[in-house]
Amino acid sequence: MLRYILERILFMIPVILGVTFVVFSLMYITPGDPVGIILGPDATNQEIHELREEMGFNDPFIVQFGRYVYNVFIRFDLGTSLIHGRSITDEILQRFPNTFRVAGLSTIFAILIGVPLGVIASVNQFTWKDNAAMLVAIFGVSMPGFWVGLMLVLLFSLHLGWLPATGLDTWRHYLLPCISIGLIGAGSIARQTRSSMLEVIRQDYVTTARAKGQTEAKVVYVHALRNALIPIITTVGNILGIQLGGALVAETIFSIPGLGMFMLSAIRNRDFPGVQGSVLVMAITFSVVMLLVDLVFGFVDPRIKARYKKAQKPKKVAKEVA
């Protein structure tokens, strides 16, 4: 298993470097001069040239990219905001926990809603329960998160006054944003759970469990659902990564002081280091999430364990012969 874990970690390194290259390249070719934004419209050509030379913008692309990679991965420095003059790293560390909490809680909400819906639909295939569960799943997948968020604000905040519409001061502030972006994940998880359960629920070991007198709940949730978890885990991992992007939209709707608001402000002000740092952190987070999903596979899927055990056996035999 240690070899499997090391392989997955090594595979993540070129992915992160590739994302860094793409993000930096896009910012490099984006129209607009950050030096002109810093100095303002009244700056002279001499002042612009001196500041560009000081900030290294006159260097070749490969030199700028190498310096950026060194600062980010060796010095752990994402740069300084061109507009506010504050450290991008400090800004992200202050705001990212809010974004991750919203994304994590919305994923938990999606699991709590999606898995039971998928199980109910699979156990009651072609009945009204199946149709009702899949109708809810299709509604969740089809409705845009920002539209659901606006409707929830109109209903529960403006008309009923039950829940706050902005901020993250108490647990009640998390309900609307987590529900608005969690419905999409719930729909996807429900459909995947139904599909996976239908593949295993008619297997011989499930029939044998019923024949031995096991309760239906134990047959479904212990024998069937346990063996249907692998594709569901993949979907959950993808959903968590997608929810990070959904959290950025929710932050705009619900005025949450997270990474999304910071990124939006950086885009509006052409704060290139802010945009680069925000996108890079999101990409790294998504890569880490997918790495954790792969590691969970290593402990859940017996085929992975068997493959790496077989790979280690010849070495042991060779040592014994020697």
Describe the structure.
This protein has 322 residues and is mainly α. The protein has helices at 2-29, 34-39, 45-55, 61-73, 88-123, 128-142, 145-159, 172-200, 204-211, 216-227, 229-254, 259-268, 272-300, 302-321. It has a domain at 98-316: Orthogonal Bundle (MetI-like fold), CATH 1.10.3720. The chain contains 14 helices and no strands. Helix 6 crosses helix 8 (172-200) and helix 9 (204-211) runs antiparallel to helix 10. The model has no long low-confidence stretch (mean pLDDT 81).
Average predicted confidence as pLDDT: 81
* CATH fold call of the domain at 98-316: MetI-like fold
Distance between the termini: 25 Å
Give the radius of gyration.
25 Å
The overall strand count is 0
Relevant CATH superfamily of the domain at 98-316: MetI-like
The profile of the biggest β sheet is: none
Oligomeric state of the chains? single chain
SSE run = HHHHHHHHHHHHHH
Task: Specify the CATH architecture of the domain at 98-316.
Answer: Orthogonal Bundle
Q: Can you tell me the CATH class of the domain at 98-316?
A: Mainly Alpha
Ranges with pLDDT <50 over ≥5 residues?
none
Strand content: under 5%
> Structural class, please?
mainly alpha
Helix and strand layout, with pairings?
Blueprint: H1 2-29, H2 34-39, H3 45-55, H4 61-73, H5 88-123, H6 128-142, H7 145-159, H8 172-200, H9 204-211, H10 216-227, H11 229-254, H12 259-268, H13 272-300, H14 302-321
Summarize the structure.
The protein is mostly helical and 322 residues long.
